[in-house]
TrEMBL record:
Species in which this protein is naturally found: Streptomyces griseoaurantiacus
Top-level taxon of the source organism: Bacteria
PANTHER family named in the record: ALLANTOATE AMIDOHYDROLASE, ALLANTOATE DEIMINASE-RELATED
UniProt entry tagged with the keyword Glycoprotein: no
Pfam families: Peptidase_M20
Protein name, per record: Allantoate amidohydrolase
Record-linked InterPro entries: Amidase_Cbmase, Bact_exopeptidase_dim_dom, Peptidase_M20
Length: 405
């Protein structure tokens, strides 16, 4: 079955007719439909199919117990009203690359697997990469049991309702130990490839990222009767901080975003007593990120002092840099670069992936396919058919190269 027919078959599953976006949340009927599609593709190719203890789906050519398996794939679930490409492009390309390898007559000298990781987006239970986190032990069984959706349904009950046994949840070192390399192809979630004019790139690393809460505390008062000189207004201090975040990020080549804000008392005619803003910042490396967030906090304290308000900064979460396996990354760049005088772009990404989680246990690499607008997690997410074809060819080249070396 061609890339085009697989893609067309998958397109209507879990699509909301009003928004045009996808609602393929973990362990819902839409997810079950996607899983049935994956299983059918596996069986149609004579692969053995299994769902592991954490709800990840695997299709195998050869016996994975032999070890040093070569695995590719991604995920089929989506964010609320997500696009068609984030996840599915990597799974469909995996099946298409296998077909291509077979038509090239590549000898499968090592086990070959295609994977659909469960609940990558975390749309239903609020935590991303649940399937891969459970497998690597990055998410404990106890914490997984506590995950609850907006309707109050826990992860185990949701799995059960979808016909999957939740009692088996837990780390899976034996299964991961059989994998010699994992390559995930993914639509790019930015415009780096569009700017360089390349259809395909290789990932270097997932940027370190964190979230910080900025609490500016002042004094609530009457918006009409309080002289400007007498105010302790946290809003202008916060506003100057937002502008400084943009300036510091720009200076360092990083990103910094205040995307969520809460104001108390939140009255149109009241000077706020509290402005609480959440900063999300990411950079290519830790020193750059530290520079941006350090400079921003220093600036924010000056603005707070100038406006007579207090500032508390709390780091709520932090994920260090994930470096993909250097040997594998260089092998990919070498395989894709050979035969042309073009070098393959190697780029970092600010978004998380199963490949990032898995890299703690398995040599892992990623390929990105150009996204002309850079828009992702939206129905506007897009890659041209030519670029998807180039992605399949690149993936097949990489897999063949890894099989033959
Ligand atoms: Zn994804």
């Amino acid at each position: 079955m061609s890339f085009h027919s697989m893609w067309t078959e998958l397109l209507p599953l879990g699509r909301d007719s009003a928004s045009g976006g996808y609602r393929r949340y973990a362990w819902t009927p839409a997810d079950t439909d996607c899983r049935a599609w994956f299983r059918a593709q596996a069986l149609a190719r004579g692969l053995t199919h299994e769902t592991d203890r954490n709800g990840n789906q695997w299709a195998w050519l050869g016996d994975p117990a032999a070890g040093n398996a070569l695995v590719t794939g991604s995920h089929l679930d989506s964010v609320p009203d997500g696009g068609a490409f984030d996840g599915p492009l990597g799974v469909v390309s995996a099946f298409a690359a296998l077909d291509e390898l077979r038509s090239r007559g590549v000898p499968f000298t090592r086990p070959f697997g295609i994977v659909n990781f469960g609940d990558e987006e975390g749309a239903r239970f609020g935590l991303a990469c649940v399937g891969s986190r459970l497998a690597t032990g990055a998410l404990t069984v106890e914490a997984a049991h506590r995950l609850t959706d907006a309707q109050g349904i826990t992860l185990p009950r949701a799995m059960e309702a979808a016909g999957h046994d939740p009692d088996a949840l837990g780390p899976d070192p034996e299964r991961l130990g059989r994998i010699g390399a994992f390559v995930e192809l993914h639509v790019e979630q930015g415009r780096a490839l569009d700017l360089t004019g390349d259809a395909v790139g290789v990932a270097s690393a997932i940027w370190p990222h964190g979230r910080w809460r900025y609490d500016f505390r002042g004094e609530a008062n009457h918006a009409g009767t309080t002289r400007l000189a007498d105010r302790r207004d946290p809003m202008p201090a916060y506003a100057e901080t937002v502008l400084a975040a943009r300036r510091e990020a720009q200076r360092a080549g990083a990103v910094a975003t205040f995307g969520k804000v809460a104001v108390e008392p939140n009255g149109v005619n009241a000077i706020p007593s509290l402005v609480r803003g959440w900063l999300d910042s990411r950079a290519a490396d830790q020193p750059t990120l530290d520079t941006v967030t350090g400079a921003l906090e220093k600036a924010a304290r000056e603005y707070a002092d100038a406006h007579g308000v207090e500032l508390d900064v709390v780091r709520e979460s932090f994920t260090p840099v994930v470096e993909f396996d250097h040997g594998l990354r260089d092998a990919l760049a070498r395989i894709l670069g050979s035969g042309t005088d073009l070098t393959v772009p190697v780029l970092g990404t600010g978004a998380g992936h199963d490949a990032g989680i898995l890299s703690a246990a398995v040599p892992t690499a990623m390929l990105f396919v150009r996204n002309p607008t850079g828009v992702s997690h939206s129905p506007a997410e897009y890659a041209t058919e030519d670029d998807c074809t180039a992605g399949v060819t690149a993936l097949a080249d990489v897999l063949e190269g890894l099989i033959r070396t």
